[in-house]
Amino acid sequence: LLTDAVDWPETDRPRRAAISSFGVSGTNAHTIIEQAPPAEAEESSTTPALLPWLLSAKSGAALRDQARRLLAHVQDDTAPADVGLSLATTRSALRHRAAVIGETSAELRRELGLLAAGTPSPGVVQGRPGGKVGFLFSGQGSQRVGMGRELYEAFPVFADAYDEVCARLDVPFDVDSESLDQTGCTQPALFAVEVALFRL
């Protein structure tokens, strides 16, 4: 009977243990477990993948200048994923933007050179963000009784938006009722909660 933790040395065979359980109500169980086989090391994929290097600036000229500076900084042996991560997470997204696409540092450097020169290329996508945003709300199936109740009680902005939507809808519904699973209640309830989440 094992009452304290003890070392279990490795041997040339898998370790096995027998476990028995005898319950007061008459339940009896016995199992034998065995040490899992060593995990095989997964081979890392050597297949290159397309990577974006994201650049942004206040003007088109500043964007080309940034491409020139980055081109002077990176070498062919630079890890493309490291540069991509740094560009995507450490810089502000300004109005003029470009995505330089390639599989290797050499390809990405070539595309940077084309961006710096202002030469169009299939490996360089440029643009500016639009001024409008659209929202797509989930459909039926994501509802649950009581959805949004805690947010309603905790955040006045959520509550105000929810109440505003409910006042404009001509369909009575109750998120705390089982009738929430009826389509006529589900759709307006989801819409009200999702608009309130957006406003939050």
Name some characteristics of this structure.
36% helix, 6 helices, alpha+beta, flat, 3-stranded antiparallel sheet, Alpha-Beta Plaits, 200 residues
Strand and helix map with partners:
Blueprint: E1 16-22, E2 28-34, E3 51-57, H1 60-73, H2 80-89, E4 96-102, H3 105-117, E5 124-127, H4 149-154, H5 156-168, H6 183-199
Antiparallel strand pairs: 1-2, 3-4, 4-5
Number of helices: 6
Strand order of the largest sheet: 3-4-5
C-alpha Rg (nearest Å):
30 Å
User: Which stretches of 5+ consecutive residues score pLDDT under 50?
Assistant: none
Question: Which of globular, elongated, flat, extended, rod-shaped describes the shape?
Answer: flat
Percent of residues in beta strands? Answer: 15-25%
Average pLDDT works out at: 87
Task: Specify the CATH architecture of the domain at 51-127.
Answer: 2-Layer Sandwich
Question: Largest beta sheet, briefly?
Answer: 3 strands, antiparallel
Structural class: alpha+beta
Quote the CATH topology of the domain at 51-127. Answer: Alpha-Beta Plaits
Through-space gap between termini: 58 Å
